[in-house]
Amino acid sequence: MSTRTTSKQRDVLGVSALRPDGIAKTQGTFSFSSDYTADNMLWGATLRSPHPYARIISIDISEAIKIAGVETVLLASDVPGKATYGLISSDQPVFASEFVRYMGESIAAVAADHPETCRRALDAIVVHYEVLTPLTSIEDALNPNTPSIHPDGNVFRHQHILHGDASATGDLVVEGEYEIGMQDQAFLGLEAALAYPDSDGKGVELVVATQWLHEDQKQIADCLGMPKEKVRLQLGGVGGAFGAREDISLQVHTCLLALRTKRPVKMQYTREESFFGHVHRHPGVIALKHHVTSEGRIVKIEGTMKLDGGAYASTSSAVLINGVTHIQGPYKCANAVFDGYAVRTNNPPCGAMRGFGVVQACFAHEGQMDKIAKAVGKSPVEVRLLNAMEKGDTLITGQPVESVAPVARCIRETDALPLPAPLSQSTETMGLPGGSGRTSELHNIKRGIGWGVSIKNLMYSEGFDDSAEARCTLADGVATLKFATAEVGQGFVILAQQIARTILGVDVVVLDRIDTEIGSAGSTSASRQTWMSGGAVDGACRLVRERLFEHVAHTHGLDPLQLVIEDTDIVDTMGPLRISVSEASKGLKIAQTFLHQHRKTEELDENGQGNCHVAFAFVAHRAVVDVDVELGLVKVVQIATAQDVGRSLNPLALLGQIEGGIAQGLGLAVMEEIIVQNGIVKNPSFTDYLLPTALDAPDVLFIPIEEPDPQAPLGAKGVGEPPCISVTPAIVAAIRDATGVDLKRTPVRPQDICL
Amino acid sequence: MSTSSEIYSLRINGKEQHVKDSWIGESLLYVLRERLGFMGAKGACEQGECGSCTVLINNDAVCSCLVMAASAIDTDITTVEGLSTQENPTDIQQAFVTEGAVQCGFCTPGLIVAVHHLLESNPSPSEIEVKEALSGNICRCTGYGRIFSAVQLVISQREKSVS
């Protein structure tokens, strides 16, 4: 993307600067990856397994290849490089050849002149399977007597945590079991890519919607058997991501088809295929036992977390670690004995989704906090304030919380927000549970209030060597920024411009194309890009400013340390000089590259001890719901929230993250679930997988808690994930409050309430 | 792919557009995007559930993924490209940007068409009428709050300019 904006006001940090790509997106002229086309282009499509587990006996492509318009059909034997890929461990075949291990696994890819020709070619491929009994339960996967469904075994990871005194007890024991369903990221812009083969056949260029260009580049190059520099990636416009674009989907297939046919090839998933083509949020079961004092203080937690990772590893091991290391929630806890397991089954593969393991943990620990409150006769707010974590507290991993930790403040400020007007005869019926179906009658509706509070780690953990690179070039008063940071909708393109305007005193900030021609920015995930790529852009701009000050100081016989930027001028703090940045940089070209790295983290030891995370953010949610107790329908009326953001760099973009995250957490609370029965996905469509619509959107009241974090380059914490984490348990708690039903699982279905 | 050599034409944003060598099974969305280059309509569900492909046919808001292209002859089709020129965005488009209603932007063109259609037929809708009118357009990024603000801004701006 190359966007030029001239701002009238000074759109610096802290201001609600507007998106540079905003108008183009409203006019339909912004190019998403699915909008790219090329002369002489072919379409690609993927053949997928109808079975969750089967042995492949034979694949016959002879009829498919005869169809007019079909250019090629590729199988596993056509992969020139590594036969498998994967984000953490490379265990997923580019094409299945011996076994298919989940419904929807890729077996073959075709390239043809029209999407319809592709569909017919896929229909004409004959695969003979020996259908096997799928492994679909977590307990079976954990049973050592169950045969392995993959050479790497059925357990992705087990992590034990032992902290403090294992024999510690309290006055009371509070137990609970919790279950989380499989959620889909359901970004709107389906997977799409266009690959251009180099004319010598020795390289390829790929335009793709992804979260992490350089990781894709590495995995693609390995599978193509090419050096990395021969695989050049450009970010196509990304229509949302939420974790689902962290893994490889169609990248390798598209490149293979283009290289084989020597023509540009475009692949684009349908919605149904998208449900099979990317990983989902891990479903799981969590058992928790809290030992507490009679007052309600947590003494010890015990329990297990079991996550179903599906057929291939993806990020299961990292999701599990996030889950188990956040199981205490944002509360003080001196003692813990906990075990987490992530297992392999023949269910759909699971991996990254906004919240990454902490969503699951939070649903369980917040259910427990309400049970503790009840057991000791306190309110949900009182028991949370009593246990609220503070800066300097130690986690159950032994890691001290060095981040600013305004947990109590988040709770108090949320609590102070006004409640909605009570239900009355004048409430519009369409605003009741059941919405435009107008099925609800006022006398069947009960209102409830619930709470959720969470802690979320920011950035990657467990010793991962994490960095982000950016380059800033200043010439004639115009700053140009180059980075490989995936803009997926979150607004990094706005933030990058705000940083440059603030540091350099320029107004015009050009954003260069986002591609692999600069070093990696890491993934747009883990709430990390404001901190990481923001830190890189900030660092590059500061280096440019130093050079500019040196130049001005040299010209005017001053010490560069005397100079500062004021608005768009360079000012001498010790004398009369004032010169505009555009004048000072006339005829100059200063380019600087900066690599931002966060502090090192450690791996966990066998007792789950170690400083494995970088930093943390906190948030509180209060939900108000109306429940039709006869029909089991829920309307989320209002969400109040206060979030620890460090520093608000763009209030409008921040509010967008808060409201958007809340809607996704609402989805997991009351409607969103991929239903899998015996390995078969039952609802891979937007007709059957329900997403929150405009009528489901609650009123959102939001207070940013601004306590700048000295560790963060801009004082700002990542804000993307926290909004969707504790809102789910808050809504479910509100439904429990309204109905008195002890709901153990999310999403809450009508039958859970009224049957 | 066996295609028909017959040419038919569609009236899009007031201009006749000739569709050549097409296959009869192509949806209006496919023809708009892949044959005629109107990339503003987006495909995201193929079932009329998400509204990303919304266009106006004879001033009705429809999902172009559910309309056979060849059945849309002799109708007036308006796409998002027909609502404004690049230099002069509509008040609705500007309000979407000003109010932060655009994030990834994939649902945005469909929503712009839907809001345009709503305010043409009902210039001062109530809050719940806005919600219902937009409930056929799924947005996964914003949670809808900024979209409601954008619509309210346009309503109040238009009311002001009338009075």
Question: What's the quick description here?
Answer:
The complex is a heterodimer of chains A (755) and B (163). Chain A is of the alpha+beta class and 755 residues long.
Protein architecture, described:
The complex is a heterodimer of chains A (755) and B (163). Chain A is α+β, with helices and mostly antiparallel strands. Chain A has 17 helices and 32 strands. Chain A is globular. The N terminus of chain A is likely disordered. Chain B has two domains: 74 residues, Ubiquitin-like (UB roll) (Roll), CATH 3.10.20; 72 residues, [2Fe-2S]-binding domain (DNA polymerase, domain 1, Orthogonal Bundle), CATH 1.10.150.120. Chain B is built from five helices and five strands; from the N terminus they run ββαβββαααα. The relative contact order of chain B is 0.15. Classes of the chains: A alpha+beta (755), B alpha+beta (163). Chains A and B meet through helix 1, helix 3 and helix 15 of A and helix 1, helix 2, helix 3, helix 4 and helix 5 of B. Chain A: It holds the Pfam family MoCoBD_1. Chain A: One of its GO terms (molecular function) is oxidoreductase activity.
